[in-house]
Amino acid sequence: MNTSSPGRLDPDGRVIMLSGANRGIGAAIAARLRRDGYRLSLGARSPKAMAVQLGDDCLYQAFDALDPESPQVWADATMAKFGRIDGLINNAGAAVPFGFDDEDEAKLDHMLEVNLKAPYRLIRAALPHLRDSGSGRIINITSLAGIRYKRGSPGYAITKFAAMGLSSAARSLLWDDGIRVTAVAPGPVNTDMMPQTSGFAREDVTQPETIADVVAMVLAMPNNASVATVPINAVYEPLP
Ligand SMILES: NC(=O)c1ccc[n+]([C@@H]2O[C@H](COP(=O)([O-])OP(=O)(O)OC[C@H]3O[C@@H](n4cnc5c(N)ncnc54)[C@H](OP(=O)(O)O)[C@@H]3O)[C@@H](O)[C@H]2O)c1
Fold first, then answer.
1. b vs e for 16-31, b when ≥16 Cβ sit within 10 Å of the residue's Cβ?
2. Which of 5, 54, 128, 240 is deepest in the core (most CB within 10 A)?
3. Which sequence spans correspond to the domains of the chain?
4. 20 C-alpha vs ligand 1 centroid, how far in Å?
C-alpha cells in the first residue's frame, strides 16, 4: 500500500548537496537521507576522514566555507557526477564567543563567512540547477539564536539572524522557480557545538537524528506545502 501523501517528492534520483556532512547534525542528516534513497553530494573540509562513509555512489567533496571558490567547485563536481542538483542543505556552521567588548572582529568575520556568506555562495552556485529541477529545495540550518537572543555568543546570534534573512529573501525571490526554502532553527542539540557549560544534560537536549527527521520531512514536501521556518525547542519557551 502506498501511504505517502499526494505530491510528496520521491527521493529516488534526487540529488542533494549537504555541507558539514562529516559530523554532528550533518552526519545524522547524511545517514537519514541515504536511507531514504537520495543521491548525496557531501561537502566537508576533510572528506576522506568523513565519519559516515555511505558508499561509492555518494560524492565526497572537499568544501571549505572560508574559501569563496569552494561552493562553485563543489556544485560543478556535483553536476559532473550526477548531472542534476535538486536540493541544497546549508548545515556547516561555526560558533565562537564574540561579544560587545571584543575589539578584534576576526571571530565575527569568521562566523559571517561560515554561517552567512558560504550559504549565500552555495545557493548562487546551485541555483541554475535548482531552477532546472522544477522542485528545488534549500534548507538552511539556522538556530533559535537567529530568531531571538537568549544566551551564548552574541556574534553567533548576529550571524544566524543574518542567515534567517538569507532564507527569507531566497524563499520569496525563488518561489516562482519552484524552489522552496526552509530555515530549520534548533535550540541546543547534542553535538560538539553544544558547550559543556550550556547547563543542559546531553540526553535532555534535541538529538541530531531528530533534526535529520525534520529535514527529511521538509525535503519531501510538495511545492504547494512550503514550510518557511521550523523552530525546534528542547525546553519550553513561548513561541518566538
Ligand atoms: N549543536 C547545537 O546546539 C546547534 C543549535 C542550533 C543550530 N546549530 C547549527 O547546526 C549546524 C550543524 O552544527 P552541529 O551542531 O552539527 O555542530 P558541529 O558538530 O560542531 O559540526 C559543525 C560542522 O560544520 C563544519 N564546519 C565548520 N567550519 C567549517 C568551514 N570553514 N568549512 C566547512 N565546514 C565547516 C564542521 O566541519 P569540521 O569537522 O571540518 O570542523 C562540521 O561538519 C550549524 O549550522 C549550527 O550552527 C547547532
1. bbbbbbbbbbbbbbbb
2. 54
3. 15-224
4. 6
Substitution site in 110, 150, 191, 232 for ligand 1 pocket (most atoms within 8 Å of beta carbon): 191
From 31, 3, 1, select the one nearest 18 (Cα to Cα). Answer: 31
- pLDDT digit string (tens) for 92-151? 999 999 999 999 999 999 999 999 999 999 999 999 999 999 999 999 999 999 999 999
Q: By the 8 A CB rule, do 235 and 186 touch?
A: no
- Spatial contact of 225 and 182, defined as CB atoms under 8 Å apart: no
CATH of domain 15-224: 3.40.50.720
- Give the residue, by CA position, lying nearest to ligand 1 atom 44: 93
Q: What is the pLDDT of residues 156-198, one digit of tens each?
A: 999 999 999 999 999 999 999 999 999 999 999 999 999 777 7
Instruction: Tell me if residue 38 is catalytic.
Output: no
